[in-house]
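Why predict the complex rather than its parts? Because the way molecules touch one another can change local conformation, and only a joint prediction can capture that. The input here totals 647 residues.
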Amino acid sequence: MKEANLDRRDFLTKSSVGLAGLAIAPGMLLFDLAHARDLAHAPVLNEPVSNKVRWGMLIDNNKCESGCTDCVTACNTENGLSGGTKPTDSQWIRKVQLKDTLTGHVSSLPMMCQHCEHPPCVDVCPTQASFKRADGIVLVDKHICIGCRYCIMACPYKARSFVHEVLTDQKPDVPRGKGTVEACTFCVQRVDKGETTACAEACTKAGHNAILFGDLNDPESDISKRIRTVASTQVRADLGLNTGIRYEGI
Amino acid sequence: MQSKTFSRHESRYFYALVALGVFVVFLGYLGMHTMEEHGHIVTGMNNQIVWGIPHVFAIFMIVAASGVLNIGTIGTVFGKKQYKSRAPLSGLIAIALLAGGLAVLMLDLGRPDRMIIAATHFNPTSVFAWNIFLYSGFFTLAALYLWTMMEKRMNVWSKPVGFAMFAWRVILTSGTGLIFAFLVARQAYGSALLPPMFIVLSFAWGLAVFLVVQAALYAWNGKVLDPALLKRMKNLLGVFVISSLYLVAAYHMTNLYFAKQNGFESFILRDGGIYPMLLWAGYVVVGSLLPLALIYLPGLGNTKMVVTASLLVILGSFALLYVFIIGGEAYPLSIFPGFEVSSSFNDGVIGSYTPSLPEILLGCGGLAIAFLISIISIRVLRGLPHDVADATAMNDD
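Output of the joint prediction:
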């Protein structure tokens, strides 16, 4: 009887451990998977963003081709914008043609929300609808934006648009709404899945490689390595906003 | 008391005026409703000029609301008896103007239905958020101020409350100036001169509104304003108009001093088409020099001239605000200094703006709200000033 009892106890112990293992293993596996994505410097959906990451962009003005608007088209497609260019249409990214008034040198570059560290739009927003995520992405909370447009007045980059009309056929993961303000979101819906922005992807696909997106806080990221080795500038650096987007070759 | 002041005949006029006011408020509602239904696409505003004619109306009323209380301040804080008897009237007009201005500002929002969010989500770094606090405080203090003046037992409190009101409205108008003074993005704004400029403008605009309302009230009641008092008030308006001109000039001169602002100043002062025209012809000539002539030229300066001068000052204020707000936004942002720029988003291009009917109606609706609140409250609360000679006057000390 004693032996049988021991066997039974032994059996119960071993099977309990086995069952526990079976129950926990898939969870652990998911946990590991999740962390594997974190290792790729991409926060995972449902996980809080942290300021360990600061998303940024380096745009090489010399590589940006004058007539090319692939980044603009990709942005419009990704975010469900009409692509219209009336003064009342939303344009989250635009190509700006520059001509140096002294030398006559002509170039072009994409311009969008610069995702400032000290964004004037966030300072002036009366309801805190304009906000900066811990990872540096500047966004508008569409639920509490009252449409006062003070942020558009305050933005030195003319990066924001006001939705002047009723919208139809919106993208489910890109909330927009009549009477609210919007701007480039760094394709937050893609970045949170570990992907790059639509404009950067389109520029690479077109073979220009003028837009480099990545984590400015990670010294080993491509963007960090690049800004260490080449001279890059911030637009209106005099304002001291520490923009997340830097330009090379202006 | 009312039957003594207003005969049945006058009553009929009163109700006709109320009906007119209600009709214009209704027109304003139609304008607002169109904007709400279709979005701001039905206005002239766009992504370059985001604040338009509704803001001209709104800021005029908010600035004038603060200025009109100056009359009360001169009476209660600085102890001038003849002004003291006008303090209740100034308080009533101030509340009416602020209500009208805020109505326009709020109904122009992209999402006016979310107005309550402005109270539930407060951003301490936003001048707009501060102003929401300042406006509600202004209403409360103005109501308290009126109470201390109208209720005999509360009279002793009218001086301290008057002081608080004085401080509050100076801060409030500074806040209105700061909305623009803190904007570094656009060349027209971001100047420390703007808060004091708005304060002095408020003195002139508020007094002009007060003089028009006072003249209408006196004519309505068949009374004649004491010529000595008229002279004092018109001279005060003159001083305020000159001070305003000085500060507006100083603002443009300091801008000219900074080399990088030259482009903007030549746009506003010379090359910008409608804007320099409105500034020089509208604000400087019609809104300042002409009123000054009507006030100071020998042989002029009677009631009619003073009312005309006041109306011209009000007209000039609209011209100045149009240039300041819309002209200031129309000039392109200097994103790349030293470069000529062009893009699909109108970079480097002067913004175009034509006010549309719905937004003009909204602005007029706000004026009508101020008008309605004024005439009804003046009638109900007996806001007509009773001068010192009138021994039974309730407001004399």
